[in-house]
Write a structure and sequence with these properties.
This protein is α/β, with parallel strands linked by helices and 283 residues long. The chain is built from 10 helices and 7 strands. Helix 2 links the parallel strand 2 and strand 3. The relative contact order is 0.15. This is 3-ketoacyl-ACP reductase.
Length: 283
């Protein structure tokens, strides 16, 4: 316990899923948490996003762990709002030590138009850039920036454009955005290393969250069925990983995030951390 004692951490996409898991785990290890989430749906995204109630409950979980929580409904696509709300939070907590740029969407479907590409790209890449750039004025030596990539995106980067099947424009936007997150974080790490500020990317494989457990994702994994269910998709999920599991849990990713947020990783920067049950080995 106490691996990030008294640090202040920003987590985006914090109302549920991986973001909520990261926020609670870091609170359990001694951090105060700033929790940002959009808390409303995006039209092209075929599964519901978090609600204000989800964000409230995430904040309460942080407080149950004995740490302070500050929640705000913020769209990572809005740089001005990100900068304003983060400045308010830092004024409240007095510092900012760790940034977990986690917010993301995956609007799958071959029937979707280019607006799905735009939404995925804007949330999954521009949103990361906005989060990091809003945070930079508040960071000092010893700070850690952690971005969320995607094993699926790394695999898609090995395929020719348009070869990834029924994912559609939104899926292509997701993959391209996450690939850019990876290269952006590497360049960021090089720029910030002289200031002793670290930047690393975590790449999860299938993760047991609302994004994976959704009708659009079931269709992605079972294109052979007109209306696949979760049970149908569960038969296909394990094909992604070399280890015999359909998915990892959010807590598996939080374990790596906690390490990267802590001083245990004080000289670790510019790296990829693949929490993938061997998916990259397999493919």
């Amino acid at each position: 316990m106490g691996r990030v004692q008294d640090k202040v951490v920003l987590v985006t996409g914090a109302a549920r899923g991986q973001g909520r898991s990261h926020a609670v785990r870091l609170a359990e290890e001694g951090a105060d948490i700033i929790l940002f989430d959009i808390c409303h749906d995006i039209e092209t995204n075929g599964y519901p996003l978090a609600t204000p109630r989800d964000l409230e409950e995430a904040g309460l979980e942080v407080e149950k762990a004995g740490r302070r929580a500050l929640t705000a409904e913020v769209d990572v696509r809005d740089r001005a709002a990100m900068s304003r709300e983060l400045a308010n939070a830092v004024a409240e907590f007095g510092r900012l030590d760790v940034v977990v740029a986690n917010a993301g969407i995956c609007p799958l479907g071959a029937e979707l138009g280019v607006s799905a590409f735009v939404d995925a790209f804007d949330v999954d890449f521009i949103g990361v850039v906005n989060t990091v750039h809003a945070a930079l004025p508040h960071l000092s030596a010893g700070a850690s920036i952690i971005t969320t990539g995607s094993i699926a995106a790394l695999l898609a980067s090995k395929m020719p454009p348009g070869a990834a099947g029924p994912q559609g424009p939104g899926g292509a936007g997701y993959s391209y955005a996450k690939q850019l997150v990876d290269s952006y974080t590497l360049e960021l790490a090089a720029q910030l290393a002289p200031q002793s500020i670290r930047a690393n990317t975590v790449h999860p494989t299938n993760c047991n969250t609302a994004m994976l457990n959704s009708d659009p994702m079931y269709k992605q994994f079972r294109p052979d069925l007109p209306q696949p269910t979760r049970d149908d998709a569960l038969l296909a999920f394990p094909a992604m990983q070399a280890m015999p599991t359909p998915y990892i849990e959010p807590g598996d990713v939080s374990n790596v995030v906690c390490f990267l947020a802590s001083d245990e990783s004080r000289f670790v920067t510019g790296l990829q951390f693949k929490v993938d049950a061997g998916a990259m080995l397999k493919f």
